[in-house]
């Protein structure tokens, strides 16, 4: 029995120990308080064995829990100015405890949301919305750089203005609300710069020529940039800069501008307190009127302009002379002369300077009558009239009258060509000057001239058997001398006659001429007749050369003569004829018989078919190539080359070409062999026997033969062949 009770007591002790391990102690909250509007901080005594704690905050609507490691702990995410019930549980490896007795705590007020601005250079306005449960607010301000003192104001309003601040200075503003218990809430902090001071001491420099103005001012404290505004009744011009000067261009003349300068920074802007007035130069006077009344007097008038104090009118004539008049009125008078063009400009002046250049007007007085008229006869149906230019004339009218018919010509130049006149006719010619304003000057003196004779008409150009050129024409002129001219690249040839024909000779070959006829009387020369082309026979070529190409082909070449387009070459002998027609300067003729005499003729033909028989020449064709070329031994180292001579007598030359040298021999006249005394054996030789022309030229078109010359130990007698013929 006793042993059973001890066992039971031991088991109860073990169970109690286990219960102590499963359930940690309940913590006790010492205090709960709020320093930030969205959180409550809790402090408690540490529970042995607890590894963490669970904080719980309830406001009746929401529950927020937060795990913390130790005291103190903070619950976040709460509402501002709200009463919460706070509990805490301890947590260990064995589990979590029961909730502690609750404790109430209220979150502090929310921070006011600030809106700040700088309404002036020495003030900052702070505004905010009402904060829940707040009954008052504290707002403080100090320099952002920490220098200087702090200004603090308490208020129950939702706005506050700090004054007597420094311009363009960055300030830090801090504000918070407090509740009925005087407990402060969260604070808000922001920075705000005061706006700059207004610019002062504005200076204006006006450029009248460019219509632009430069502005300067004393730098304004706290200004980042400046804007200059030029305001007129019709426009507003601006320029911006970070400096203390600026230029505005494209100003309008005759305009008064109100100038102000705006200083700006990131807080705002401040405009200069006093505006400056700028008056630009007056505009150029308009509605300029020019009148010549009476003649010799010019009257210039114009309209009045704004801001114009007085006027200056300039009158410059086209000879460079300039006069002007100064007046406060709107009219000036000047002396003028006939035939002059005057250039008139009017300027307005004020203290700013001279107005821009307006329109330049020109006025031309009545033109003077043309003088030194010089009629120049150009042809039988045209007359060119020239004269010195007269002042003021815009147009010249020329009239030619022969009694009933009138020919006119109008031109702005001091020259006129009267066309469609009758040949050999007397005309009354007058030149009138004209201007659009004044009309024609009808007092000019006429001139009388007679046109040149009528042009002859060439009827025929012919050639006779002696290459003389006969020209025939027809003309209606009386007592006229006619000159016929043949003009070409190789010169000019003429003949003259009082009748209707003439003859000329000595014209060069291969030439093309233009033949014209001219009639001449005391009044002058007629226009040339229509030209008639004339072509002489082509020139014969020079340097005819005949070259033997092969035994049966020769080449005939020559230097092409003037205008020859093609040539015909004929080679003729008793055996027949060979002929070619070519546009080149050479021709190949075949089927030539060797060793006979030929007659060579050449004919030059132009593109129009005119032919010239040019050349007759004798040509002896080359000797025929020898036949039966053979080699024989002469002594131990010599050979004899033998051949059969062809038709006709000819001289020959023999050449042997081998790797050990070239050997040549020339036979005596009339012989058909020649000897080479020393020639190396053991080589292959190319043998050619060629006829020699009378000029000494060796003809190389004969066939070649190749022999192998071997070396033999035995001595063979004369006529024993020891050569091998390869081809």
From TrEMBL:
<feature type="signal peptide">
    <location>
        <begin position="1"/>
        <end position="24"/>
    </location>
</feature>
<dbReference type="InterPro" id="IPR036116">
    <property type="entry name" value="FN3_sf"/>
</dbReference>
<feature type="domain" description="Fibronectin type-III">
    <location>
        <begin position="369"/>
        <end position="454"/>
    </location>
</feature>
<feature type="domain" description="Fibronectin type-III">
    <location>
        <begin position="284"/>
        <end position="368"/>
    </location>
</feature>
<dbReference type="InterPro" id="IPR013783">
    <property type="entry name" value="Ig-like_fold"/>
</dbReference>
<protein>
    <submittedName>
        <fullName>Fibronectin type III domain containing 7</fullName>
    </submittedName>
</protein>
<dbReference type="InterPro" id="IPR003961">
    <property type="entry name" value="FN3_dom"/>
</dbReference>
<keyword id="KW-0732">Signal</keyword>
<feature type="domain" description="Fibronectin type-III">
    <location>
        <begin position="110"/>
        <end position="198"/>
    </location>
</feature>
<dbReference type="Pfam" id="PF00041">
    <property type="entry name" value="fn3"/>
</dbReference>
């Amino acid at each position: 029995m006793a042993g059973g009770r001890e066992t039971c007591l031991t088991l109860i002790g073990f169970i109690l120990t286990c219960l102590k391990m499963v359930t940690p102690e309940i913590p006790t909250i010492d205090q709960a308080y709020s320093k930030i509007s969205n959180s409550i901080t809790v402090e408690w005594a540490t529970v042995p064995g607890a590894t963490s704690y669970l904080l719980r905050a309830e406001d009746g609507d929401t529950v927020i829990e937060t795990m913390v490691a130790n005291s103190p702990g903070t619950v976040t995410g709460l509402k501002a100015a709200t009463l919460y019930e706070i509990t805490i549980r301890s947590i260990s490896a064995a589990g979590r405890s029961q909730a502690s007795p609750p404790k109430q705590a209220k979150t502090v007020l929310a921070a006011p949301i600030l809106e700040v601005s700088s309404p002036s250079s020495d003030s900052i306005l702070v505004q905010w919305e009402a904060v829940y449960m707040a009954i008052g607010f504290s707002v403080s301000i100090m320099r952002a750089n920490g220098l200087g003192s702090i200004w603090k104001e308490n208020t129950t309003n939702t706005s506050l203005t700090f004054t007597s601040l420094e311009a363009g200075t960055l300030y830090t503003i801090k504000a918070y609300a407090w509740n009925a218990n005087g407990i402060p809430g969260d604070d808000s902090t922001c920075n705000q710069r005061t706006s700059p001071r207004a610019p002062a001491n504005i200076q204006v420099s006006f450029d009248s020529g460019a219509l632009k103005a430069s502005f300067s001012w004393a730098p304004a404290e706290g200004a980042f940039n400046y804007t200059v505004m030029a305001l007129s009744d019709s426009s507003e011009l601006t320029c911006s800069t970070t400096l203390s000067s600026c230029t505005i261009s494209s100003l309008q003349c005759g305009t008064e501008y109100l100038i102000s300068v705006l200083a700006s920074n990131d807080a705002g802007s401040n405009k200069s307190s006093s505006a400056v007035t700028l008056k630009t130069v007056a505009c150029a006077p308009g509605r300029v009127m020019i009148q010549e009344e009476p003649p010799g007097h010019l009257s210039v008038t114009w309209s009045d302009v704004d801001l114009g104090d007085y006027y200056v009118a300039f009158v410059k004539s086209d000879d460079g002379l300039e006069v002007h008049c100064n007046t406060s009125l709107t009219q000036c008078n000047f002396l003028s002369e006939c035939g002059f063009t005057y250039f008139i400009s009017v300027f307005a002046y004020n203290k700013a300077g001279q107005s821009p250049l307006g329109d330049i007007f020109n006025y031309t007085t009545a033109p003077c009558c043309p003088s030194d008229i010089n009629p120049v006869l150009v042809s039988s149906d045209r007359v060119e009239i020239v004269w010195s230019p007269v002042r003021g004339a815009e147009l010249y009218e020329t009239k030619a009258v022969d009694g009933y018919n009138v020919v006119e010509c109008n031109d702005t130049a001091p020259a006129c060509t009267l066309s469609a006149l009758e040949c050999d006719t007397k005309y009354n010619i007058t030149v009138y000057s004209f201007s659009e304003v004044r009309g024609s000057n009808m007092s000019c003196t006429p001139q009388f001239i007679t046109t040149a004779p009528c042009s002859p008409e060439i009827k025929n150009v012919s050639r006779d058997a002696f290459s003389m050129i006969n020209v025939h024409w027809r003309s209606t002129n009386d007592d006229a001398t006619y000159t016929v001219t043949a003009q070409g690249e190789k010169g000019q040839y003429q003949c003259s006659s009082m009748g209707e024909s003439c003859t000329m000779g000595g014209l060069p070959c291969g030439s093309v001429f233009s033949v014209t006829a001219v009639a001449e009387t005391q009044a002058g020369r007629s226009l040339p007749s229509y030209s008639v082309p004339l072509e002489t026979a082509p020139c014969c070529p020079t340097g005819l050369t005949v070259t033997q190409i092969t035994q049966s082909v020769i080449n005939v070449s020559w230097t092409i003569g003037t205008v020859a387009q093609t040539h015909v070459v004929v080679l003729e002998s008793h055996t027949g004829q060979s002929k070619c027609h070519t546009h080149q300067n050479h021709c190949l003729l075949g089927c030539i018989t060797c060793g006979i005499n030929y007659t060579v003729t050449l004919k030059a033909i132009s593109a129009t078919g005119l032919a010239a028989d040019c050349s007759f020449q004798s040509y002896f064709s080359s000797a025929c190539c020898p036949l039966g070329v053979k080699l024989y031994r002469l002594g131990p180292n010599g050979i004899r080359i033998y051949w059969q001579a062809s038709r006709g007598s000819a001289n020959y030359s023999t050449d042997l070409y081998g790797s050990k040298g070239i050997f040549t021999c020339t036979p005596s006249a009339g012989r058909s062999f020649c000897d080479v005394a020393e020639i190396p054996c053991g080589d292959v030789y190319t043998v050619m026997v060629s006829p020699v022309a009378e000029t000494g030229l060796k003809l190389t078109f004969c066939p070649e033969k190749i022999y192998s010359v071997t070396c033999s130990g035995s001595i063979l007698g004369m006529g024993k062949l020891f050569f091998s013929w390869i081809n």
